[in-house]
Amino acid sequence: ARLVVLVSGSGSNLQALLDAAADPAYGAQVVAVGADRDGIAGLDRAEAAGVPTFVERVGDHETREDWDRALTAHVAKHQPDLVISAGFLKLVGEHFLTAFGDRYLNTHNTLLPAFPGIHGPRDALAYGVKLTGATLFFVDAGMDTGPIVAQVAVPVLDDDDVDALTERIKEAERRQLVEQVGRLVREGWTITGRKVTVP
Ligand code: GRF
């Protein structure tokens, strides 16, 4: 199966996928990595692995819709079976979702629907929850609202700060991402309403 991965930052989730895909038994290859900005470690990781990269900046387009169209075209060129947002910090638009809506995965660093948005671990810590985690889901038009594929729980420890909690979540998150993407590409999936079924 062909994976296109979208990143905006350090790309540790991308790295986990690149490492897993090095084994042919995994059943998927990362065929391209896209970003919304230059100069990020995620792009360096792709280049180090010999994977083609592309950058589509919102600021280079007249409207957000133009950007969405350009991003869609760029991703489509690589004919992905799955598109994975791995720390991609932009909400895609209508064109992208029309093209990839049933095969666009995102990983979020809390147990949704609690604490959506870019400060999940900080918000979870501030709220005082004792358990949080990571959620893998298919993206819909909302922010962190789509049908859930899998979740993994991670404890919040008494002496956690945001960095310690964020790192503990990311370890579980990477394992879940690799396992679940492998399962989806090997077994397939259907989405019915909010329910994701893997046969
Ligand atoms: C992940 O924890 C993701 O949930 C959050 O940003 C992080 C991305 O990390 N939105 P990385 O770029 O894969 O290292």
UniProtKB/TrEMBL annotation:
Signal peptide per UniProt: none
SUPFAM superfamilies: Formyltransferase
Site feature Raises pKa of active site His, where: 144
Binding site for N(1)-(5-phospho-beta-D-ribosyl)glycinamide: 11-13
Pathway: Purine metabolism; IMP biosynthesis via de novo pathway; N(2)-formyl-N(1)-(5-phospho-D-ribosyl)glycinamide from N(1)-(5-phospho-D-ribosyl)glycinamide (10-formyl THF route): step 1/1
Domain Formyl transferase N-terminal: start-end pairs: 2-180
Reaction equation(s) it catalyzes: N(1)-(5-phospho-beta-D-ribosyl)glycinamide + (6R)-10-formyltetrahydrofolate = N(2)-formyl-N(1)-(5-phospho-beta-D-ribosyl)glycinamide + (6S)-5,6,7,8-tetrahydrofolate + H(+)
EC numbers on record: 2.1.2.2
GO cellular component, one term: cytosol
Domain of life the protein comes from: Bacteria
InterPro entries in the record: Formyl_transf_N, Formyl_transf_N_sf, GART, GART_AS
Entry's Gene Ontology molecular function annotations: phosphoribosylglycinamide formyltransferase activity
Sites where the protein binds (6R)-10-formyltetrahydrofolate: 64, 89-92, 106
Keyword list, A-Z: Purine biosynthesis, Transferase
Similarity comment text for this entry: Belongs to the GART family.
PANTHER family for the chain: PHOSPHORIBOSYLGLYCINAMIDE FORMYLTRANSFERASE
Function: Catalyzes the transfer of a formyl group from 10-formyltetrahydrofolate to 5-phospho-ribosyl-glycinamide (GAR), producing 5-phospho-ribosyl-N-formylglycinamide (FGAR) and tetrahydrofolate.
Name under which the protein is recorded: Phosphoribosylglycinamide formyltransferase
